[in-house]
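Review form for a predicted model. The reviewer records the input and the model, then writes brief findings.
Reviewer: anonymous (R2)
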Amino acid sequence: MASLPVSDPALPVSIDDVRVAHARIAPSIVRTPTLISRTLSELTGATVYLKFENLQFTAAYKERGALNTLLQLSDEARAKGVIAASAGNHAQGLAYHANRLGVPATIVMPRNTPTVKVTQTQAHRADVILEGDTFDAAYAHARLLESERGFTFVHPFDDPRIIAGQGTVAVEMLEDHPDIDTLVVPIGGGGLISGMATVARAAARPIEVVGVQAELYPSMYNRINATQLACAGDTLAEGIAVKEPGGITAQMVARLVDEIVLVSERSLEESVSLLLQIEKTVVEGAGAAGLAALLAHPDRFRGRTVGAVLCGGNIDTRLLANVLLRDLARSGRLARLRLQLQDQPGALYGVMRVFDRERVNIIEIYHQRVFTTLPAKGLITDIECEARDRAHLDRLIVALREAGYEVRPVDLA
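Model under review:
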């Protein structure tokens, strides 16, 4: 995709729009740090700078576009209030700044929205309406209320004011670290990358812009590349799980973005875990998409100076725990081993002696006597254990087999 001149009149958002938006919102948002990660740089072969947008008050960049929109409303529109359809970061960003400014806010969410997201949005004094079982149903109801009650609808991504506000992320990144030559940006509806690409194209030197989508939701990838990959599934990156990108944003991405890459669920999980372990920062699946791209496509970014946006940190704590445990299992530090034993006294004791000798910690033991194809005097034992690393675990398995036990790891999907 070719770059355009800065002043291209065909696009609805200009660099001046983004600069004005930054001046407008700067007093009321966090200027989040952009910091080099030396460990991730060594791991990926790129020089990696991270923009910590998960440190915004509502833990996501969405505040920027929401605030930029609210500050441009007329007095009449402010008095009547704003409405949005969202179950995520847009809802909280809009509700928070609307409450600060004294603007009534109504947020329509699907009925199956997790309770924590509902309560967080209500905490900002928004009127939350649960309607429909899907986002599309909630969206339709929000547009109905817009027309019935005179609210101003604030779109999560397909609005020039939103796009300009989101583009301020890139303004700060390039001011803080002008040596960045590649921006890696998550794509859902496309608001963030449209704004950031506008800033990149206005720079005095070439800056590549690479978008990232989850493999399960390649909607913008399909639009730009004329493909028909399926958009469905339970992705960790629900913040960018958008089935239909915006019309405005699709136009801007087609003209300004160099490439869109796809990342797997496994890469997303690994990236969430790495960011917590290495950078000591919590990100949601969408927030980890930039790092996932660096890990999944190392040849694409090796040798580049990359700016990646950690766009949000709102992840359910139980889900985060599952991601971390799964990553430990894949690395060999946690494992479940399945052994066949004879159902007689001392059988388990013999196994424990091998674990003790190899200094592997046992976490849980499960016996299965009934639902098995073994003879009646046999049983299956699953042992969850903790090793130092993959090599340590492999030594345990070898030792168990040398002791005469039939053993195999129970692998993750």
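Findings: The longest strand covers residues 334-342.
Further findings: The chain is about 45% helix and 20% strand.
Recommendation: see findings above.
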